[in-house]
Inverse folding.
């Protein structure tokens, strides 16, 4: 309950993975939920690239009762390890990715869309109010809540809420408005100097690819001195392969990133001309396919000193833009949603009579508990990103041998801090799901 006996009003900015999961957890509480998302309508086709969902992320979906639905889809391969090679095709090592015995599951290679669609389907089943073509533009903190202003189909509207949750990504509009309310300089995304370019092909379009990648070895990552190439199966039959390159590129405007296909493939052929099978073949077949590559310049935001104000809180990439190099972006967004929901559930148990119920302290606990873990993963992601930058032949020689030593000693136990983590109270939500 909220002030005056009215239901607690929560507005969530963004219906991506973080925002959708947040709403599903909060649907179990006595609160009125509204989600605003800037997309014109619910996405109805695959969008986004191929990602890894760690065992820690799958545990959150299990708490929502959605892990089995996700695993029933055509895409999604369990990955126990990633094979690392150099540009000449020599083995560097293998990076463990979790195990059923140790972490409850291995990591899962799948489309980002798979997770998102499962979450959106669940939102529709619960009839949670989602306003498409609606973007939070600004917020103003009041003595008894937060005034949220948003644009909906071009029309400006506003509403008072008890809590605003900014789950609107790295280009969040909630974050700058919150920082302005705090009287602080607004952190802005900055280009990291790395760009990703991705493609999807049929496995049988390249002779020999079906033996290079198998369901037992579904991911191979190649470190070359001029860039990095990842190659991944992601469907259960091994019929589809996604591959991408991450390399250095100068900063460009949004329009300038719309590079002609001819220029993209010319640059890729030059960059990876000396690499072993199947990289030259992947470039050749992708060019012949006529498909437009997916281009994503990697932006980052400095570590935020404030994830929240009195009645507003940031989660997911709005709070901590997760570089793609860790394979933990979706998992950390899900963890954020689960832990904030856990704290809010405890807070709701104190309402409406308890004098100790303090929303600001709840949000403060959320940041204090989550930020050290997230910062550790962001730091590691940035280290991995730096390994994809250009280097000299001597630098590449040193880099390979450092990686060989690390992977020689690396075991599944090394990943316990990431994959073995379970959000406090996560099992309680599964019990609530079963009761409803």
């Amino acid at each position: 309950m909220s002030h005056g006996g009215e239901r607690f009003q929560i507005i969530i900015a963004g219906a991506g993975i973080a925002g959708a999961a947040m709403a599903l957890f909060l649907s179990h509480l006595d609160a009125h939920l509204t989600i605003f998302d800037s997309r014109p309508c619910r996405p109805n086709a695959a969008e986004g690239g191929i990602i890894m969902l760690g065992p820690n992320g799958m545990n959150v979906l299990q708490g929502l009762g959605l892990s089995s639905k996700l695993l029933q889809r055509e895409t999604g391969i369990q990955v126990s390890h990633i094979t690392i090679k150099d540009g000449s095709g020599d083995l560097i090592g293998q990076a463990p990715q979790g195990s059923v015995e140790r972490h409850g599951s291995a990591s899962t290679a799948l489309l980002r869309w798979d997770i998102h669609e499962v979450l959106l389907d669940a939102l529709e089943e619960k009839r949670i109010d989602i306003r498409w073509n609606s973007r939070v533009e600004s917020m103003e903190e009041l003595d008894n809540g937060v005034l949220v202003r948003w644009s909906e189909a071009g029309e400006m509207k506003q509403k008072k809420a008890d809590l605003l949750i900014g789950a609107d990504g790295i280009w969040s509009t909630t974050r700058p408005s919150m920082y302005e309310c705090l009287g602080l300089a607004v952190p802005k995304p900055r280009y990291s100097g790395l760009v990703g370019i991705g493609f999807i092909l049929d496995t049988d379009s390249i002779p020999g690819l079906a033996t290079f990648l198998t369901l037992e070895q579904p991911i191979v990552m190649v470190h070359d001195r001029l860039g990095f190439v990842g190659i991944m199966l992601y469907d259960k039959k091994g019929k589809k392969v996604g591959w991408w390159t991450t390399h250095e590129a100068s900063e460009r405007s949004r329009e300038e990133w719309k590079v002609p296909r001819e220029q993209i493939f010319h640059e890729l052929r030059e960059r990876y001309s000396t690499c072993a099978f199947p990289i030259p073949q992947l470039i050749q077949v992708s060019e012949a396919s006529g498909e437009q590559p997916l281009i994503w310049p990697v932006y980052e935001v400095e570590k935020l000193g404030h994830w929240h104000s009195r009645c507003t809180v940031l989660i997911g990439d709005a709070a901590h833009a997760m570089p793609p190099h860790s394979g933990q972006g979706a998992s950390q967004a899900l963890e954020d949603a689960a832990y904030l929901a856990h704290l809010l559930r405890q807070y709701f148990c104190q309402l409406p009579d308890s004098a100790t119920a303090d929303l600001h302290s709840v949000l403060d606990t959320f940041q204090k508990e989550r930020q050290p873990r997230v910062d550790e993963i962001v730091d590691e992601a940035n280290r991995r990103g730096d390994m994809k930058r250009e280097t000299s032949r001597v630098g590449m020689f040193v880099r390979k041998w450092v990686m060989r030593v690390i992977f020689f000693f690396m075991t599944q136990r090394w990943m316990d801090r990431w994959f073995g983590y379970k959000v406090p109270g996560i099992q309680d939500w599964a019990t609530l799901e079963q009761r409803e």
Summary: The mean pLDDT is 94.
